[in-house]
Write a structure and sequence with these properties.
0% strand, 77% helix, 60 residues
Length: 60
C-alpha cells in the first residue's frame, strides 16, 4: 500500500479549512471586545475596588 502524492496535503488543507471555519464562527475579535467591555464595566461598577477572583469568574 503506497501513499499517493497529493493525498496528505489535501487532507491537511481540508483540516485547515475546517479550522478557519471554526475560527470564523467564534469571531475572536468580537469576543475579545465583549470581554474587554465587561471588564471595564466591572471595574467601573465595583464599589469595593477591583476583586480579581470575582472578575475572572465573571469573564469565564
Amino acid at each position: 500500500m503506497s501513499l499517493q502524492h497529493g493525498t496528505l496535503p489535501a487532507a491537511w488543507s481540508a483540516h485547515r479549512a475546517a479550522l478557519a471555519d471554526y475560527i470564523e464562527l467564534t469571531k475572536p475579535g468580537v469576543t475579545s471586545l465583549i470581554l474587554l467591555s465587561t471588564a471595564v464595566g466591572f471595574y467601573l461598577g465595583s464599589e469595593q475596588g477591583l476583586q480579581i477572583l470575582r472578575l475572572i469568574h465573571t469573564l469565564v
